[in-house]
Amino acid sequence: MNKCRIENPNNKEVRDCKFRTTETLTKLWAKIKMPESITLSLIILVIMGIGIGFTLLYLWLITRFEWKAIAFFIGYIIVFKGLQSLIGKNKNKILKIFDFIVSLPMGITMISFKLMFPSITILTSYICLGVYAFGIPMLGVKSLDYLFKLNISWETLLFIALAVGSIVSVYGTRLIHWVIKEHSPLKNWENHKYEAVKTELALYVISKNNINFFIYLAYFTYLSISGLMQIQYNEPLITINVDGAILKAFLVFIAFSNMVSKSKDVEIKAKPLLSKIIRLMTTHDK
Questions:
Q1: Residue 90 in contact with residue 24, Cβ under 8 Å?
Q2: Any residues with CB less than 8 A from the CB of 172 and at least 6 apart, and which?
Q3: Which of 88, 168, 208, 223 is the most core-located residue (most Cβ within 10 A)?
């Protein structure tokens, strides 16, 4: 095999070797076939990442500059609209260049809003899920505690909210979907075409299987870190009672999931059981 001599980069042999190396790498890259699912997942992650990035950027600008950022944006819109009406169909090249420069921030803003929209919709769907599945049980328990002076501890409240919320999130998806479609910011008001697509996206990402996966992932992550802290440093991740409440909530969720799964194997059916009960009640010796 011939080796490239790098002493003289202008040498023809060296240039030929570099070309062959580049050609080989290009062919190798072309042979690498990435599965379609991975490619699509990467595209989704890029869109979500950019959308979340722009969302955080705008939130930072608003919190950092407060009313100044809003006033600047409104002022820019006024100037932009004024220039658009002033220039109109004028064919002057200088004005066209100036119009392009002034329009550039607006174009970037519109593109960023389009990228932010899916990310905000998905995040809002999970926020609604958290409020309806976890927040309402916690509020209900807190109300009972206040009305009947039950003196329920914070850890008990956390345990009940996590256990009930996890179960409702996975096994009450029809109820959650109905609430989101009818009583949430993601409702399709039928005022714009995109509203139906927005609602469809929101319901798709909070399907039963998706939520089930994310709940297991959340419990797995927390309990792994908590277990490591307990074994390595003999310290809880938050507090002993809070770690215990989260662990017990996960065990209740697993027990309920297994109960639902095993209920399909139960051999007692209502109709044959009722028939046998009635026969037992009505059968007598002569």
A1: no
A2: 133
A3: 168
Alpha helix ranges (H) inside the chain = 12-31, 36-65, 67-87, 93-130, 136-148, 154-171, 173-182, 193-205, 208-233, 240-263, 270-282
133 contacts 178 by C-beta, under 8 angstroms: no
The encoded tokens of residue 106 equal: 């607006």
Residue 257 contacts residue 263 (beta carbons within 8 Å) = no
Q: Please say whether the beta carbons of 248 and 161 come within 8 A.
A: no
Which tokens in the block code for residue 2?
């011939």
Which two tokens mark 127? 């926020």
DSSP 198-220: HHHHHHHHT-HHHHHHHHHHHHH
Per the listing, tokens 């500059």 go with: 65
Q: Which residues contact 65 (CB under 8 A, 6 or more apart)?
A: 72
Q: Taking the complete model, does pTM exceed 0.90, yes or no? A: no
What would the pLDDT profile of 133-189 be if each residue is shown by its tens digit? 999 989 999 999 889 988 899 999 999 999 999 999 999 999 999 998 888 888 888
Residue whose entry in the numeric block shows the structure tokens 């949430």: 184
